[in-house]
């Protein structure tokens, strides 16, 4: 089963992306993605 998660920019804390991940994964997802607000690629982390 998959769970919907929100990715938050680590620099400006804006919620830019939503994605899905498996529920059996315990660690939080971290992806380097483009932030429209910052104007550059930054690390995006899964929100709580």
What topology does this entry show?
Elements: E1 2-9, E2 15-22, E3 30-35, E4 40-46
Antiparallel strand pairs: 1-2, 1-4, 3-4
Folded structure, characterized:
The structure is a single chain. The protein has one domain (2-46): Rubrerythrin, domain 2. The mean pLDDT is 93. The protein has 48 residues and is mostly beta strands. Helix content is 0%, strand content 60%. β3 and β4 form a beta hairpin. The protein is elongated.
Beta-strand share of residues? over 45%
Name of the CATH superfamily: Ribosomal protein L33
Shape: elongated
Helix content: under 10%
Number of helical regions: 0
| Total of domains | 1
Separation of the first and last Cα atoms: 19 Å
Structural class: mainly beta
SSE pattern, N- to C-terminal:
EEEE
């Amino acid at each position: 089963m998959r769970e919907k998660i929100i990715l938050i920019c680590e620099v400006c804390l804006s919620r830019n992306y939503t994605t899905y991940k498996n529920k059996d994964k315990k660690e939080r997802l971290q992806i380097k993605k483009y932030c429209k607000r910052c104007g550059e690629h930054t690390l995006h982390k899964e929100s709580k």
